[in-house]
Amino acid sequence: xxxxxxxxxxxxxxxxxxxxxxxxxxxxxxxxxxxxxxxxxxxxxxxxxxxxxxxxxxxxxxxxxxxxxxxxxxxxxxxxxxxxxxxxxxxxxxxxxxxxxxxxxxxxxxxxxxxxxxxxxxxxxxxxxxxxxxxxxxxxxxxxxxxxxxxxxxxxxxxxxxxxxxxxxxxxxxxxxxxxxxxxxxxxxxxxxxxxxxxxxxxxxxxxxxxxxxxxxxxxxxxxxxxxxxxxxxxxxxxxxxxxxxxxxxxxxxxxxxxxxxxxxxxxxxxxxxxxxxxxxxxxxxxxxxxxxxxxxxxxxxxxxxxxxxxxxxxxxxxxxxxxxxxxxxxxxxxxxxxxxxxxxxxxxxxxxxxxxxxxxxxxxxxxxxxxxxxxxxxxxxxxxxxxxxxxx
Amino acid sequence: xxxxxxxxxxxxxxxxxxxxxxxxxxxxxxxxxxxxxxxxxxxxxxxxxxxxxxxxxxxxxxxxxxxxxxxxxxxxxxxxxxxxxxxxxxxxxxxxxxxxxxxxxxxxxxxxxxxxxxxxxxxxxxxxxxxxxxxxxxxxxxxxxxxxxxxxxxxxxxxxxxxxxxxxxxxxxxxxxxxxxxxxxxxxxxxxxxxxxxxxxxxxxxxxxxxxxxxxxxxxxxxxxxxxxxxxxxxxxxxxxxxxxxxxxxxxxxxxxxxxxxxxxxxxxxxxxxxxxxxxxxxxxxxxxxxxxxxxxxxxxxxxxxxxxxxxxxxxxxxxxxxxxxxxxxxxxxxxxxxxxxxxxxxxxxxxxxxxxxxxxxxxxxxxxxxxxxxxxxxxxxxxxxxxxxxxxxxxxxxxxxxxxxxxxxxxxxxxxxxxxxxxxxxxxxxxxxxxxxxxxxxxxxxxxxxxxxxxxxxxxxxxxxxxxxxxxxxxxxxxxxxx
Lengths: 393, 484
Fold this sequence. Notes:
Chain A is α/β, with parallel strands linked by helices.
C-alpha cells in the first residue's frame, strides 16, 4: 500500500499558492519549463531558480528564500514526473499522478446518485467541482506520450457537458492515452448525452458501466436506487447505437454471485455489442466493510457460477475478463480470462503466495484484503502445473 | 438502523405487470414459454397459470426471471421494449442486405446417375445442357444488382466441373467487376469431385474458391446411393476431399450427405466416415421431396419419425465425441441453436422467415431461367414452373425481384402470420418453406398438422431444448455451436 495524501512536515509560504496542481521536476529532468512545475529538492544543494514551489524531501534541508514545503513523510516516494495538488497554504498534499504506475485513476467527484452496498468510495454530497478543475490542470501538465488515464467518481457524468469538455481536452493533449471512465451509465439514457459522448471520437476511450442484475429488483437493490437498472440498460443501448466503446462491470459479492449466470445470459442476449465484460472481485473497503455481512462471499463458493458466466458470455463472442481474483480460487480453465487488475498502490500478497508458482501472473490482493480474504488461499507449486496451465498463465 | 434498504424494498409495490408478447407449448407437464425473439423459460404448470391469469404474487421469485426474459414488465419499465425492439431489428437485419447467394447452374450434365438426384442429365449434348457465356454474363449482371454487401457465387449442376471453362470465366469476370464494386465476394463449387484435376485445384487456390461436395457415408452406402461408371464415386470423392484439404486448406471444404432409407441405421458409421476424412462438421439432412426422389418413391420410403431417430442417434454420438474433446458439429442443430441462443439469424434458406427464396438465394439455371430456389428449379424439371421468376434474357432485376412468383410465396408463407405458426412457441427457431409446402400440399402455406416439415422441426426443437436444459456437457457444446 502506497500512501497518496498527507500533511506537509513543514511549510513556509509567504503568499498563498497561485495554483493547486504541480508536476514535480528534479535536477535530472530539469528543463527551462517552469509553469506548473515544482522543484523536488532531493539533496542539500542550492536548487535552480524560477520555480513557484519547492518540495523538500528532507525537512532539514529546505531551500532558503524560496517558497517551499517539506513533503509529508509518507509521500517521500514521490519522484520527478509525479503530479500533486497542494492546498493554498501548502499544508495538504495529495498525489494525483504517479508516473511509475501503470494505472493512474483520477477522482472527478465524490457525488453520486447511487449508494451501492459495496461502494469502495462512499459518496459525499458536497460541492467538489474543484476536482474537475484539478483534472484539467493535470491533463495540461502530462506529457503527450502518456499511455493511459482513468477517471472515476462518485459519478463523473453529473458534470454533463463539462465532462465532455474534459474528455475532449484529454483526447487532444494525450493522443496516445487509453482513457477509461467509470460511470453508472444512467445519464446515457439521454440519447443526446450519449451522442455527445460518442462525438468525442476518441477510439482509445472506453466507459465502464456496472450491471448487477438481469432485472431491476436486484440491480436497484445493490445500487440502492429505484429506476437505476432501466436507465442504465437504456444508457448502454444508446452508447452502442451512438458507437461509443463500452465495458460492463459486474462486481461479484454475496448478492450478485448466485445471479451471475442469469446476468451473463442477460448480457449475452441483450447487450452483446459491448466491447467487453469484466467480472470483478470485491474490494473490502468503504461500504463493503460496513456491509460485510451482506456482501462478503468467499470466491471459492461461487466458482461454479463464475465458470458458467464466463462460458455463457465467452462462447457467444462477448469478450470477458476476470478482475481482482486470485488464481488459486478460480477454475484453471478460467486462468486465460484472469487479468492482473489491482492498482499497484493497492496490491499485496499473502504469505502463502511466496511458495506459489503462478504468483507472477496472479492478480494478488487488494490492500484491503486484510479485512477479509478467502479462507482458501493455497500456493500452487510450480510442479503442480500442467504444460497447458503454464501456457494459459 | 441501517442506511441501506432491503431487497424487498426494491420489489414492485404491487403486481401491476403487463404481459409482454409470449407464446407457449406444454411439454411433459411443464410449460415452455418463449418471448418475441425466442428467449425461453420453462415453467411448472401452476406457475404458468399464475402468470397467464396475472395472479403471480409480488414476492414470487419467478417475477425476477420473467422480467429478465422480457416476458412481463412492470408499468414504467422502458428498457424491455427498447431491448425487444433492438433484438427484433437484429434478427431481421439480413433482410436489408437482400440476396447474398447466387447459384449458377453451369451445366445440367453429370456422369453420376444418382436415383435421388433431382436435377441432372446424362448427356454429352453440351449445346443443350450447358450455360452459355452470354447467360453467365447476364447472371453476373443480375447478381451485382443485389444490394448485399456480401455476394457468394455458387456453381452447381449437374456437375459443374464438366463446364469448368465457364466457371473460370465467371470467376474472372466477377473479380474484375468487384474491383469497382468492393463487395465481400466469395465462390463455392458444388461438385462430386470425380473430375477434379490439379489444374482445377490450382485455379481454386488462386481464386480462394471453396468446395462443397457430397458424401453419404461409408463406401458401400455412398456407392449404392451414387452410381457412376466404375462404381467408384466414394473412392473419387474421398480422394478429392484429401486433395482439397491439402491444396486449399481444411476450412475450405465441406461435405453434404443425403439421407436415404439405407442411411437410417448407420448414423454412427456416417459420422465416423466424416471424422476419418478430417471433416469436423456434418449436416444430418432429411431427404427432400423433389425431383426423381418423388418419382422413384424414395421420399415416401420412410417418414419423419424414422428420420428423427436417425438424427437423434447421430446427434447423441456427435455430443459424445465432443465430450471426448473431438470437435464435431452437427450443422442442422447448429443453425437452430444459433436462432435459440443468440439474436443472430443464420439465414439458412430452409429455416428462416420470411423464407429465403429469392431474397436469400437465387438460381440462374443453365438455360437462363431464374428460379427462387434450388428446389424451385427441381420442381420445374418435373414440369411445374411455379417458382420460375423470369429469364435472364428478357426480364430485368426489378421485374424478377418484384414478380408475383416471388412475392406471393414470401408473403403467404411468412411464419409470424401463418395459421398455427403465429402462435407456436417454436416460431422464432423455425422458418417458412413455401417450396416444400407447395410440393407436398399444393399451396405455399401448407397445413401444419399434416406437415412433415413442422413435425420434424418441432421434434428437433424439443430435443435440443431438452438436452440444453438437462445435460451440462451438451449445453456447453451447444453454446459453442451457437456462438460460431
